[in-house]
Specification:
The chain has 291 residues and is mostly beta strands. It folds into two domains: 135 residues; 97 residues, Thrombin, subunit H (Beta Barrel). It has four helices and 15 strands. Strand 3 and strand 4 form a beta hairpin. The relative contact order is 0.11. About 2% of the residues have low confidence. This is Bacteriophage phiJL001 Gp84 C-terminal domain-containing protein. InterPro entries: Phage_phiJL001_Gp84 (IPR011928), Phage_phiJL001_Gp84_C (IPR018964).
Length: 291
């Protein structure tokens, strides 16, 4: 059962309410933003919640037990709120959102409706719809180790222990053959595929501070999985981190790190389950199977 503050309960019992919704958003980099569907800005817990953003609650759901609940928030992309470049750059991925029901005549009279995180963001022209995921969605996240043939660690983390400094380089953009393909110069020569599956971090230019996953590296051509959210210009600088496909052969031959491999490469797979017992297979020589 939800505990309703006495002041808020008294306001609800008054017969006429002056309520609006406020959303307090905190990104993982510490930036805090406030939004409201009221027609004037509201100060809430020291954070100004901006109106004129076109933000409104589009849909909400509640589930019993451990089912994941959530909702949607719809609005217009503008300089006062969420911008398309910031959304495409992943700045709002996993951001925490508090949803408040507030008396706009006295913002201290308020009720916390829900706490969630931003999930999928859909964009259509100058509008967006952001999915709000309830806290229960974290129960579906992978925790601890799992039994699988490939490595469960990330390259360079505490379990992998590879020194990333030896597998990084810098470079600059020289051209854009395709929107998601970069022609670059690198500080050194590297084999094809070394940075496939790796990470590109922009250090100069309009995308400085943003990261991108590398789909393919062939010589001085880099193909990214997604188009950079902001324009890329010749001369923009970046750093590269090598990729790892998490196979034992790659861990052993490329990184000489098989001792820290965090997978189970010799674990039988589905093919072993479906395989017949040796000696029990029928002889498939074209003859009858019933003689």
């Amino acid at each position: 059962m939800r505990d309703i503050p006495n002041a808020f309960a008294a306001h609800l019992a008054g017969g006429v309410t002056t309520l609006c919704r406020c959303w307090s958003l905190r990104r993982r980099d510490g930036v805090a933003l406030g939004f409201t569907d009221h027609d004037c800005d509201l100060g809430l817990a020291g954070l100004v919640h901006a109106a004129r953003t076109g933000l409104e609650a589009a849909e909400a759901s509640a589930e019993s037990g451990f089912a994941v609940s959530g909702g949607d928030v719809a609005g217009a992309l503008s300089s006062l709120g969420l911008t398309e470049a910031d959304i495409a750059g992943g700045l709002y991925d996993g951001a925490t959102v508090e949803t408040w029901l507030v008396d706009w005549t006295n913002p201290k009279t308020r009720l916390l409706i829900d706490v969630g995180t931003i999930g999928e963001v859909r964009r259509e022209g100058d509008a967006f719809v952001a999915e709000l995921r309830g806290l229960a969605h974290r129960l579906g996240a992978e925790r601890g180790r799992t039994f699988r043939a490939t490595c469960g660690a990330d390259l360079g983390d505490g379990r992998c222990r590879v020194d990333l400094a030896a597998w990084q380089t810098t470079g600059r953009v020289t051209g854009l053959p395709e929107p998601a393909t970069l022609s670059v110069t690198l500080a050194g020569g590297f084999a094809d595929g070394l940075f496939t599956g790796g990470m590109l971090t922009w250090t100069e230019g309009a995308n400085a501070g943003l990261r991108a996953d590398i789909r393919l590296q062939l010589g001085t051509l880099l193909e990214l999985w997604t188009v950079p959210p902001r324009p890329v210009a010749a001369g923009d600088a970046f750093s590269l981190t090598a990729g790892c496909d998490k196979r034992l052969a790659t861990c052993r031959d490329r990184f000489a790190n098989a001792i820290n491999f965090q997978g189970f490469p010799h674990m039988p797979g589905n093919d072993a389950v479906m395989r017949a017992v040796p000696g029990s297979e029928p002889v498939l020589d074209g003859g009858s199977l019933f003689r």
